[in-house]
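Re: Re: token formats

Sure, here are both.
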Amino acid sequence: MPHDSSPLPAKTEPSTAESELLVECRQDGVALVRMNRPKATNALSLNLQALLSQAFTQLAADPAVRAIVLTGGDKVFAAGGDIKSLEGAGPIEIMQRHTERVWAPIERCPKPIIAAVCGYAFGGGAELAMHCDIILAGEGARFSQPEILIGIMPGIGGTQRLVRAVGKFNAMHMLLTGQAVVAQDACRMGLVSQVFPDEQVLPEALKMAALIAAMPPLAAMQIKEVVLAGVDAPLETALMLERKANQLLFATRDQKEGMQAFIEKRKPSFEGR
């Protein structure tokens, strides 16, 4: 599959007539997923969540896609859940929405996902960013889990992923006060990978995604799988998973190509086989 650094997408596919979610599949193996509810600060309505689920299901199965960038635009990433759809709901209704199933295609996506965050990533927006593998943030980005302020708590991994990312004490501060954290502090805590000027976040995310897309995709998938599976496992178990995945990659054509290209001092061409 050809790879280039062109910033222009190969195609643009609005997911609905309202275009609440835009998916751009580029020629460099990168898919750009853009939430598009600017008047609602990209609030994660049930419809938008369903569209995200559908998009990531399709992208996970597309062999031409090797890395994914998720963004909300240059003003806001996602300012939480749609409170109007939650205000009158009872516990059984909330349970029957099965948000864990809706978000599973993002959580289990085998392709590397980069979140490009500008502006607010609050509540469900922060949880969505934490479903990704790398978070790049603009200098004006802010992260929070403000659910306690309206009498509830995070329900899409905000307590569990946050504490694993930033540790108990930083997580407790965010969760129990509902206060927002600026991008630089989020980076210091380990929630954000890198911080850029706001206007550079998406270009940098696309650049990084193109770099990852040019890597052998089977190796990238195995790295992601082993990191996520091993993070909560005993060290000996995690090391065993790492060894087995490493051994498996020696059966791939990309391993042969990569090592041969290194010896011959040329650029490798990876096929994902």
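Second one below.
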Amino acid sequence: MSKHDEARRAFLKGAAAGAGVLAGTGLAPQALAKEQEPKPHVRHKTAAADAAEAPAHVHTSGEGHGAFFNDEDAATVAAFTERLMPGAPGLPGARDADVLNYIDLALAGAYADQQDFYRRGLAQLEAFCQQAHRASFTRLDAARQDAVIAALEEGKAAGFTWPTAQAFFNTLRTHTMEGMFADPVYGGNKDFAGWRLVGFPGAQPLFTTADMQSKEAFTRAPMIGLQAQAKAQAQSKKI
């Protein structure tokens, strides 16, 4: 893994840890089991918050896309997010954590108001890549993909109007972090890949104050998420 890749991974990992791992564990697990009426979409509401209000079966990992993205856009988003959070031997990246699936499901649900944002952003990304490199983003090598991403981040990518290059980059980076580190019930963080990176134990209810102060606090219990908590809680009510 290059130093550039290591720096990018370290940034996202550190940002996620600083933001409480984006786990959404403050939401009541029992909300997963409730059928609720559709609610108006709110742009600044997190996908995690909206998903926790939906039935558990709505957000399950599938083949990575199909709820919103077509094959071409899915491949672009998968490649883009992997460059933001690249994998390495023993270190899961965006593909390993199924970040594409998270974003796809979010755009079909909680982030439905951002569908046109993604459509236009991806179209502008394609146009910029063709103009700058005469190839689609997915056909560029890692170095040129990184150059494209850097141009977006710095607002130097020509042809972007709405969304702006920086807005598109920032949104994809934010959604990549969510897909890496949010509870797996929302479609990403497959096999707790993101949580294992930062040592987050999930929705654990039994840690004492002493546990939280111990370096060994999160090593004694299995890592669990909201869906497992909801099932366990439902089972306990039947006993």
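The chain has one domain: 3-200. The chain has ten helices and no strands.
- S.
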